Amino acid sequence: MLEKKIAGYSDEISVAPGERIRFMVSCEPGIDRYQADIVRLISGDRQPGGPGYRDELLPTSVSGEYPGRTQETYIGSYAIVPHGPAFDGLDNLSLQATIFPTLPSLRRACVISKMDVDAGRGFALWTDPAGGLVLQLGDGDGGLQEFALGRPFVGREWYLVSATYDAASGEVHLRQQLLGSYALDTSSGEAEHTSEKAAVVASDAPLLIAAASREEARGRPIGEMIFNGRIERPVVASRVLTHSEVEALRRDDLPVALRVDICAAWDFARAFETDEIIDISPNRAHGQLVNLPIRAVRGSTWTGDELSFRHAPDQYAAIHFLDDSLYDCEWDADFELEVPADTPSGLYAARIRAGDQEDHITFVVRPPRELSERNDQSELSEHNDRGESATASLALLIPTASYMAYGNSRGGIETGNELLSNSLHVVSPDERYLNRHPEYGNSMYDVHNDGTGVCYSSRLRPLINIRPTHPWLWQLSADMHLVEWLEAQHIPFDVITDEDMHQDGVSLLERYSCVMTCSHPEYYSTPMWDAVHAFTQRGGRLMYMGGNGFYWRVAYRDDKPGAMEMRRTEDGSRSWASEPGEYYMAFTGEYGGLWWRAGRTPQSLVGNGFIAQGFDHSSYFRRAPGSDDPRAAFIFEGVDDEIIGDFGLIGGGAAGLELDWASRAYGTPPHALVVATSEQHTDAYIRVNEDIGHMLPAIGGQDDPRVHADVVFFETPRGGAVFSTGSIGWSSALFHNDHDNNISRITRNVLDRFLDTSAFT
Amino acid sequence: MPSQYPIDPSRTDLAREFMANPMGPHSAALQRIVTRMRDTEAAGRYVLVTLVPYKEWGLARLSGQRGVDVTLEEDQVFTSIEDGERAVFKLRWELITGAPLSLD
Questions:
Q1: pLDDT score at B74
Q2: pLDDT tens across A699-710, in order?
Q3: B6-41 burial, b for 16+ CB within 10 Å, e for fewer?
Q4: For A308, phi and psi rounded to 5 degrees?
Q5: DSSP-derived secondary structure letter, A570
Q6: In this complex, is the C-beta atom of B14 within 8 Å of any C-beta atom belonging to chain A?
Q7: What's the confidence (pLDDT) of residue A373?
Q8: Phi and psi of A598, rounded to 5°?
Q9: Domain ranges in chain A?
Q10: How far apart are CA A429 and CA A584, in angstroms?
Q11: pTM
Q12: What confidence tier does A251 reach under pLDDT thresholds 50, 70, 90?
């Protein structure tokens, strides 16, 4: 049986000629050596009847054999506060926090720790499945004393917890108070203990929030026993605080009278858009978050009066920590590529091979960043209608945001997704490998171990299903059908990514006569959306070659390269739902969820927007009356067929998976032409829930006429135009009959006209 | 919560329809019971595991737990996805109706 044992990632997703990219690889035991080469990807679909895998070797210094090794990944989120003067000389101690444990019965979990375990110095506050709140104090002699309150926490409830130690008397006081009001509550309580020997609470260990640590790696303490749930306003004080003082510190700014005794009090309602946690005490013992815990989440005082953390920051003073969140694997680099200066823009991969093992760490060589640099490459240059040189007139826009959203999707092997596909799930070796490696993190379609939706993703880790040969034909593996067709047509094209467009804006798109999307460009940041919109409004030509595009709003953070945020708000096709009051993204403060809910429908951008999905049989298109309009004549040149695309490598048709429709009510331009419409979808195709008001039967493909895809064409200002295929499955039909088919012909007709710089009127 | 739709064990005509065309599309009546069969708890759900890509698949059950592998049923190996669907249909028919599927 084939088992996958090797995977890697790169530090960049898009590099220009002359720039460097590093590759990190990890092998399971038994892979002692592997061969690495840089290849240009030509095609990927290995299914019988498909185009197969093809690449072209790019001769570089990378080519060679490398030693295989296993690289460690440290998963889970927590905060680190370096040891400093704020914590010097502690003998008396108070610890407190308001906490919302989500998995209190799973195992012991650490709320706050500052412990040198080997020396037996320091303190740690825990939640324990049986003991509830637990305080550990060092004995100064390599040991720990432990004091438990004795009442288990109820999950997903807020508690104010506190623990004090009086060095003179040895008294320990523990308190946990449920903040909700129930007729019966056995989880609140207090406990008094007396320490048998004097505790040594001072240590020079770093302080951790939501984790304890015994060892360091990558230059910092590794978080263990990570707390799942929310923590708000943790405080460390150097004397025994009274209960009323604990209450006062929970909510208010630091009372003046207490400031002298506070070592640190972290207010998580500040610096939401950063990894920093701010100590509001005079000590300024700030800390850093690790592995993207969730910020801008409801705290214990949220009233529901305000729904944005920016409008009531103090009600969002919590951070949600998770034992399975991940930003960056931080592996050591195995090899590095300096992209040769004359490398044509394209889709490339570091191809890793060892026996029957293979991985393709895929990346993009984008065109040069500066126009002046391109002028040095006159042999490659063409000129667009704005007189600027570009390495090609066509750009293929790789949807790296959507790749990141789907990267490491675990739904198949965890649930089977059998109703979605209306067929048995087929588990690939890649999926079993991903399942063996929970430390590679989750996709935005998964939930964390505590059931919280995954709202951050990162590309600084192996994304197992974002591979050109992945048997689940989705995102990159499906987009290879389009790449294969472009290569077969001998059409020169540059390759650019979502991240390039996010950073460079419309100026990048404006180098090209035509920009072509891939099959499922679903996730868009505001700068990305603005760039595409400006391009279409300034005479650019856009070929939207897929379905369910421009749907979810996402955010990037300039200081967190490779990370992305998304909230699943209100409605949409959701595998989980954001909590009420948590619809605004911490990275930018923008309202998350569907772009439609921010007043920007996909139809207003590309004429088409998501209306239905299904994953069993794909269907076909029938020519629509709009195809008879002289404005659309170029689209059907040489195509006499009434039925279009009744073939394809995904589900057997060009109209499949996720479908878009044109709708005046949703913003399709009034002059747009629907030139073809799909029909006869199965009942596994269901209309999207955001288009459903009352719940009524007849929302499946056999009943509901809205369950269809439209092919749309319309002109845009200043001579531009948009063509939308309305279906993710479109590109899977291009290969049929050695590319001699009506989908291929229509696509070529549109592309030729869109590359022709004469204006549409 | 899994589907509660009942399967009438006398409707062997639908079973025959499935066996003849396991990948569908199915008649409405057959699709109802196929949906009933596919809507199970994740833990223990039947899946096919790729043994040789595009050539050979083994029957297995999901663990329903992150990080816990599928359990392969070693004696059930198929050379087509269709045969895998047929085998699971029979297993689920018996599980739901309480009687083995007999089409002879």
A1: 86
A2: 999 999 999 999
A3: ebebeeeebbebbbeebebbbeeebbbbbbbbbebe
A4: -115, 135
A5: S
A6: no
A7: 46
A8: -100, 15
A9: 6-72+333-360, 78-321, 382-395+460-564+591-755
A10: 37
A11: 0.96
A12: confident
Q: Does B64 touch chain A (CB under 8 A)?
A: yes
> What is the CATH number that goes with domain A382-395+460-564+591-755?
3.40.50.880
Confidence category of residue A384, pLDDT binned at 50, 70, 90: very low
Our measurement of the distance from residue A172's CA atom to the centroid of its chain's CA atoms, rounded to an integer in Å, reads 44
**Residue A252 in this model has a pLDDT that exceeds 90:** no
| pLDDT tens sequence across B58-96 | 999 999 999 999 999 989 999 999 999 999 999 999 999
Residue pLDDT, tens place only, A92-149: 999 999 999 999 999 999 999 999 999 999 999 999 999 999 999 999 999 999 999 9
With a CB cutoff of 8 Å and minimum separation 6, the contacts of A526 are: A553, A555, A588, A590
Q: Judge whether residue A382 has pLDDT over 50.
A: no
Strand pairing category for A643-644 and A609-623: antiparallel
Asked if B45 lies within 8 A of A48 by C-beta distance, the reply is no
Identify which of A258, A735, A305, A720 has the alpha carbon closest to the alpha carbon of residue A481.
A735
H helices of A538-650, in order, are 602-606
DSSP string, A513-562: SEEEE-S---EEEHHHHHHHHHHHHTT-EEEE-SSS-S-EEEE--TTSTT
CA distances from A525 to A273, A479, A545 (A): 16, 21, 19
Neighboring chain A residues of B24 at a CB cutoff of 8 Å: 422, 616-617, 682
Spatial distance between the Cα atoms of B11 and B6, rounded to a whole number of angstroms: 11
Cross-strand bridge partners of residue B59? B48
CATH number of A78-321: 2.60.120.200
Q: In angstroms, rounded to a whole number, what is the distance separating the alpha carbons of residues A481 and A499?
A: 22
Write the residue in B31, B54, B69 that is nearest to A683 by C-beta: B31
Describe the strand order of the beta sheet including B56-61 as a list of residue ranges: A426-427, B46-52, B56-61, B71-78
> Terminus-to-terminus CA distance in chain A, angstroms?
59
What's the confidence (pLDDT) of residue A375? Answer: 45
Give the closest of B40, B51, B62 to A1, CB-based.
B51
Q: Is the pLDDT of residue A486 over 50?
A: yes
Tokens, residue A451 = 């059931």
Residue A295 has pLDDT above 50, yes or no: yes
Residue A418 at interface with chain B, using a CB cutoff of 8 Å: yes
Domain boundaries, chain B: 12-97
Residue A289 structure tokens: 């978050």
Record: contact A616-B84, CB cut-off 8 A: no
Q: Does domain A6-72+333-360 have CATH number 3.30.450?
A: no
